[in-house]
């Protein structure tokens, strides 16, 4: 028997399309109640309506731009009033302005603000609303192997982020340092990741934040992990990839619904392409 029911509530960000939309659909199919959020009201409503038309009743929609703290505050107020408690948070929303194979830096502040601070601020605001009894709360941050620490060529930066006593302040200082290096034109020389640099740093910070949060909640009924879906066919990759968003979503649903005794925290999971569905833990 599964541990969840229609009382179990999940929030998914950036869910009007791509992997986020498929995660919402998969969790609904499995019988949970899901809050679909999207930054664009019209696109979010279209996605929500399509799920309602497909017969899913336990789906809600709220317009949430994770890069905007006032939008996060409005969402959390609404959630507290209308839904109340939370079991699962999937921080999926993200941006990248590079095409596959391209490595320019464009709008790095937007990328950091969305992919790192967006997930962090939303998480911090929702932490008091996690259900504490019945089961273990679950946060899954959708990340990328581009943000793995071995992509950092600067040993000092790597040492900082690897430190077991790492703090949120140090992560924030690290992304600030990256943005300063970008504006000075010194980011290549200073050993930041070479591939999709701004996006990679945002995901590196997200991974580091996940480890800090997992440590903060160790033994307190909250599991915090990261997952890289691999090269998935969505608009972020211009439709290229080795598998569909639906396949990536099936793995995400499996991870967030693991039975309490199998849950880990502070881990980074990823799909290995051959064979497609295997998960490895870094
Ligand atoms: N596809 C891959 O190969 C791949 C690989 C590794 C990791 N990932 C990660 O997987 C996750 C999903 O990406 P995807 O491939 O499904 O890309 P996608 O199709 O481009 O979807 C990204 C979603 O995030 C939303 N979003 C962007 N900025 C937002 C904001 N400020 N507030 C709220 N939502 C926002 C987008 O909304 P709009 O429609 O309004 O733009 C869209 O719904 C991301 O975290 C991505 O980094 C993807």
Provide the descriptors you would attach to this structure in a database record:
282 residues; alpha/beta; 8-stranded mixed beta sheet; two-stranded parallel ribbon; 8 helices; plastid
Q: Describe the biggest sheet?
A: 8 strands, mixed
Which residues sit in consecutive blocks of at least 5 with pLDDT less than 50?
Answer: none
Total count of helical runs of at least 4 residues = 8
Shape: globular
Blueprint of the fold:
Elements lengths: L8 E4 L5 H12 L3 E6 L2 H13 L5 E5 L5 H14 L5 E4 L16 H19 L10 E6 L12 H8 L5 H17 L12 H20 L5 E7 L3 E2 L9 E2 H12 L11 E5 L5 E4 L1
Parallel strand pairs: 1-2, 1-4, 2-3, 4-5, 5-6, 6-9, 7-8
Antiparallel strand pairs: 9-10
Helix pairs in contact: 1-8, 3-4, 4-7, 6-7
This protein binds NADP nicotinamide-adenine-dinucleotide phosphate.
NADP nicotinamide-adenine-dinucleotide phosphate binds next to helix 1 and helix 4.
